[in-house]
Every structure is written in structure tokens, then in C-alpha cells.
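Final report, results section. Input specification for complex C-07:
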Amino acid sequence: MGRSPCCEKAHTNKGAWTKEEDQRLVAYIKAHGEGCWRSLPKAAGLLRCGKSCRLRWINYLRPDLKRGNFTQEEDELIIKLHQILGNKWSLIAGRLPGRTDNEIKNYWNTHIKRKLIARGIDPRTHQPASAGAVAPAPGAAASAAAPSSHRQHGDDKAAAVVRSSGCSSRDSSGDDDSTSGSSVPHQHQLVVGGIDLNLSLSPPTSQPSSPAAAN
DNA sequence: AACGTTACCAACCGCAGAGCA
DNA sequence: TTGCTCTGCGGTTGGTAACGT
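Structure output:
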């Protein structure tokens, strides 16, 4: 079968973004808002695929991004959240305003993993390295222990934790901000290690509501 | 000063799920 | 109800900078 490629690869640029491309993208989104990524590149006059534009915007150009070093607080929060959610970077990012899933994922892989290992903690199970090897973490944490089985079944448990709250990872973005009428509040109050993990799934950047938010 | 290695960040790829006709 | 399209997510890779020998 084969799905049609997300874009005409032959006519799209790849690799690092230029300043001009950034400017075009930002200008377009400021004027028209996000959405319809597939048609955006053409409309904005960019030789990029929609996916690429979305990623660039979300991970780099969004005006509300924090950028810069992670604080000790963020650090600990990421660890706690990862313990509960596993590699659900988008959900974790949702609890860290101004941070993107990609940024957190990178940070986890390059800093936190190492840090935990140095502390003698298995970064997947969040258990003492020796114990973790034999005793997988209970509950949701188990998902983190699951060998990255490509999010097929491995993280089902962590996902279940989230779903049980009436949300799916999709919801976070879907954000049917339905707040409006939805009888099921998208919240899940958790307190771990003294940190109140209110797992309400709000988009990382609650709506670029007003493009003007930029600057 | 040159070369090799390691660490970090940005971007790409493929898949799954939601929404719609 | 089914199939198709689009979006979003997570994993992985490539490029570059920093550091060490």
C-alpha cells in the first residue's frame, strides 16, 4: 500500500534551517496562527514539509520557549515525572512550561541518565541499579523499565495511568479545551516525592493564543 | 598545533491514533 | 462502518562544538 509521502521530497529542503526560513515561518504563523501544517509550507513560501515546519516551530521558534539551562527544580521534576510516565516526553513537557518534549528528551539522554547512573540508580526503572535489574519497578514505572519496545505495548502501563485519568497522550494536544462541557476534568492529582504532580494535560504552551504573545 | 574523542543539540523518520468523509 | 488523511509522538541520526591527548 504505502501511504503517500508527507511531502514532495524532491522539492523540499532538508537540514538546518536558515534565518530566512525561520522568519518566513514565524511571520506566517503570527499572521495566520498554527494549524494545517501540510499546507503551511506552500502558503508560507517554504520549501519544507509540514512536519519539518511544525517541529521547527514547536522546538525552536515558539515565542514562549524558555531555552537555557534546566534548573535543579526542573531537573528533579523531570525525574519524578519520568518515573511515573516513562518516556512520555510530550506529557512530561506539558508539566514544564517553556520546555519542549525534544528538549527534555535530549536533556534526559545526555544529562539526567548519566546523573542517575552516577547515583547508582537505573534510569529506566528508577530503582537502585542492582535492585532494578531484578525487580522491575511496580506499577507505571514498569513501563519505563520496558525495553524501548517502540511504544507498542511496553509503555501501556504508563499510558494506562494517564488514560485512567480520562486522557490520552492525544488529548494533551487535542486539548478539546473543552473544558467546555467535558464532564471529565483532565486532571490527575498525584503527589510523588513531595512534589505535587497535577497531571492535568494542558498543552505545553497553552495555545499560542495570541501570536502577539510573541515578544 | 593537530588529531581524536566525547557531548550536545537540532532535525529527520516511521508509526499510531484521531478526525472526517 | 470503513478507509483515508493529517497530526503528533518517540526514537534515532547527523552535525558541530568542546575537551583531552
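Residues 3-4, 6, 15-16, 36-38, 50-51, 54, 58, 87-90, 101-102, 105, 148, 150-151, 155, 169-170, 172-173 of chain A lie near DNA strand C (CB under 10 Å from a C1'). Chain A is about 45% helix and 5% strand. This concludes the modelling results for the funded period.
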